[in-house]
C-alpha cells in the first residue's frame, strides 16, 4: 500500500523537496479515507502544559498528528506553518480538530520548550512529550522512523525522521497519512470527510 510506505519515508530535515502524494496527484481534491490495521493506536503522552494527553480521551474530535523536533531546520517548521494555515482555512471547523506535534527529541524538547516554540505557529497547537521509551512506543505504533545523526555543529546532532502527517478520526482510528507538501485543499478535504463520519 502506497500510504503505508509513506510512514517509513525518512527526511533528514535538511531538504526542501516536496514528497507529494500519489493519491493527490491522481485525483486532486479528493481523499479516499483508509483503514489501517497495523498502524495507529491509543497512547498517552504529556502536553506542553504538563497535562496528560490520551488519544482515546479525544473522541469526538479529529486529530492531525505530526512527528518532529524543535531544532529541525526545514521540514518541521515548514509543516507547522502549513498546518497553522490549514487551521485558519478550516474556519469554525477548526474547533473540532486537534493539531498535535510529537517530539522525537525528548532529550532536548522539554514541555516548556515545546510551549515557547509552538506558540509562534498557533497557540492552539499541542506539543506532546514523553520519556525516550514512551516516544519510541508511540513511534512504533505509527511506524514513524527516526534516527539520531551526529553533526560537527553547535547543535551536536540532527534527527532523520518520517515527515508524514497522520489524520485520525473522531473514534481514534487512523484514516489517512498525508505526505510532506500536500496541498491545503487536499488536506482540508480529508479533514472534512473525517468530521462528516458518524
UniProtKB/TrEMBL annotation:
Binding site for Cu cation: 72, 76, 161
Listed SUPFAM superfamilies: Thioredoxin-like
Transmembrane segments: none
Record domain Thioredoxin: where: 34-198
This protein's record includes keyword Secreted: no
Gene3D superfamilies assigned: Glutaredoxin
CDD domains: SCO (cd02968)
Family designation: Belongs to the SCO1/2 family.
Full protein name: Thioredoxin domain-containing protein
Organism: Candidatus Lambdaproteobacteria bacterium RIFOXYD2_FULL_56_26
Amino acid at each position: 500500500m502506497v500510504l503505508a510506505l509513506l510512514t517509513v519515508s525518512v527526511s533528514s530535515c535538511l531538504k526542501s523537496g516536496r514528497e507529494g502524494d500519489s493519491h493527490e496527484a491522481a485525483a486532486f481534491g479528493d481523499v479516499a479515507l483508509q483503514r489501517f490495521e497495523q498502524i495507529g493506536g491509543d497512547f498517552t503522552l504529556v502536553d506542553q502544559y504538563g497535562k496528560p494527553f490520551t488519544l482515546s480521551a479525544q473522541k469526538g474530535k479529529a486529530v492531525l498528528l505530526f512527528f518532529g523536533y524543535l531544532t529541525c531546520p526545514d521540514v518541521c517548521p515548514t509543516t507547522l506553518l502549513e498546518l497553522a494555515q490549514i487551521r485558519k482555512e478550516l474556519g469554525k471547523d477548526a474547533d473540532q480538530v486537534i493539531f498535535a506535534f510529537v517530539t522525537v527529541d525528548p532529550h532536548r524538547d522539554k514541555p516548556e520548550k515545546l510551549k515557547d516554540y509552538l506558540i509562534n505557529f498557533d497557540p492552539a497547537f499541542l506539543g506532546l512529550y514523553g520519556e525516550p521509551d514512551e516516544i519510541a512506543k508511540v513511534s512504533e505504533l505509527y511506524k514513524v522512523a527516526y534516527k539520531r545523526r551526529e553533526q560537527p555543529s553547535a547543535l551536536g546532532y540532527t534527527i532523520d525522521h518520517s515527515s508524514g502527517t497522520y489524520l485520525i478520526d473522531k473514534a481514534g482510528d487512523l484514516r489517512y497519512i498525508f505526505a510532506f507538501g500536500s496541498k491545503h485543499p487536499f488536506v482540508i478535504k480529508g479533514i472534512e470527510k473525517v468530521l462528516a463520519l458518524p
